[in-house]
Amino acid sequence: MPVASHERRLGAGRLVRRVHRRSSLTACQGPPRELPPRRMKPAAFAYHAAETLEQALALKAQLGDEARWLAGGQSLLPAMNLRLARPAALIDLNPLAALDVIAPTADGGWRIGALTRYRGIERDARIARAQPLLSEALSQVAHPQIRNRGTLCGNLAHADPASELPAVMLALDARLHARSAAGARWIAAADFFRDIFTTALAQDELLIEVELPKLPARTGSCFLEVARRRGDFAMMGIAAVLTLDQDGICGHASLAYCNAGATPQRPRAAAQALIGRRVGAPEIDEAAALAQQAIDPPGSVQADAGFQRHLAGVLTRRALRRALERAAAPETPA
Amino acid sequence: MSATRHRVSLTVNGAPRTTEIEARALLSDVLRHELGLSGTHVGCEQGVCGACTVLFDGLPVRACLMLAVQATGHAITTVEGLAGADGTLDGLQTAFRDTHALQCGYCTPGILITMRAFLDEHPAPSEAEIREALSGNLCRCTGYQHIVDAVLLAAARRRAAA
């Protein structure tokens, strides 16, 4: 089946489009570097089912870039089927059931593990209450069959700039926990996404969990996107978060956009236009205009960069109005 | 690279099955070529079309986006597992026949599996909910209207029988 006809739909079709447009695909390393013929089966690789976390991390340290982690596989497997990715080895995390976790942190935040699938997050009433932005965005990520397997951490490590979830992590100021055989470190979402399909993770590291900080009272959020069909990647998407003080003045604002550059884009000037002010239509218009200038959308045959900028303006205004209503509503996240 | 073979033991449509495969073998291909269950169709092999949808421990997944080696110890239901042992069609299959919800039939196994799981969770779905649930399955005979009709009919019959 020709990939091009489905390029706006989920998965590797988009990968192909991007590879055609850009000369390298850093997340999918290994020969050949030129565009491969359109084969539809993975090349041979060594399969290692993880026995323990320690064993898996030691193996990754030993194999380095030759090996890829396998969690949900909903981005990696399409890339392998198309032979855009030809890892020499896969280390399958699925036996490590302890990594499938959604748990509160001591300071009121939430942590989500490397094997936690979209489905589990989407149906978790605690997350819907405490982190409604994530729940709202997840309902727009691909299709139920994909969400039954795909994982949040795998999505972030894949770092597709058009994906909804990296933008959501930026807007929520998530912290990402990287583990290796040598130790562990926290990476701020703002430092994690380096380039298209490229993250701050070292070759021996696993993104073992994500931590979402507790949202203050009077916080409202909204995720909106425009896609050609339900479940498609968005032509443009926005994750908006804002917090009001007791007098209704905006104390914190965060806007992040997907499919708006080589990484998810967080135009700080747009957020600054809201902070310290009583947010109304003029402030929202100013933030939207600043965001439109700041983002760097790639453009595609369906939506050129100018149209993507137009969508960013429309979505910013809609999302901020809704986030504002939610922040002012009596029931804000606990 | 040496083609190491892995022994895989899984349950397919209620029966234990064991086979030896390469790690790179997709679940869709192993179901079709090793286990002889060719009802699971293969369309795009990149997770787009939904023709290969099977139930993995009760949940619909893309069989082309899973390695068969990952299925060890798990339960798979394919379209062959929907009908009774005597060949009696299940309610959804009957509704598909009654409303002419298939033309060439290529997408049908994936849609039946997807909508079977959907109906278990949504006994009284709206048309909009059905269309959203169908969004991950492509039908290129443009038969969506009849497919929606079939799912509505199957749901109504299920409720009437309950």
Question: Please, could you describe this protein's structure?
Answer:
The complex is a heterodimer of chains A (334) and B (162). In chain A, 33% of the residues lie in helices and 21% in strands. Chain A has 334 residues and is of the alpha+beta class. Chain A folds into 3 domains: 9-14 and 23-92, Uridine Diphospho-n-acetylenolpyruvylglucosamine Reductase, domain 2 (2-Layer Sandwich), CATH 3.30.43; 97-212, Uridine Diphospho-n-acetylenolpyruvylglucosamine Reductase, domain 3, CATH 3.30.465.10; 219-328, CO dehydrogenase flavoprotein, C-terminal domain (Enolase-like, domain 1, 2-Layer Sandwich). In chain A, a hairpin with a 2-residue loop joins β6 and β7 (183-188). The longest helix of chain A is centred in the last third of the chain and has 24 residues, at 305-328. Chain A is globular, with a radius of gyration of 20 Å. The N and C termini of chain A lie far apart (49 Å). The model of chain A is unreliable at 1-33 (pLDDT under 50). Chain B has helices at 27-34, 91-98, 108-121, 127-133, 144-161; strands at 5-12, 15-22, 53-56, 59-62, 75-77. In chain B, a hairpin with a 2-residue loop joins β1 and β2. The relative contact order of chain B is 0.15. The mean pLDDT of chain B is 96. Classes of the chains: A alpha+beta (334), B alpha+beta (162). Chain A binds chain B through residues 1, 3, 6, 9-13, 40-47, 49, 70, 73-74, 77-78, 81-82, 88, 90, 92, 94, 119, 142-146, 148-149, 229-231, and chain B through 1, 3-4, 6, 22-24, 26, 29, 43-50, 53, 56, 59-62, 64-67, 69-70, 114, 118, 132-133, 135-136.
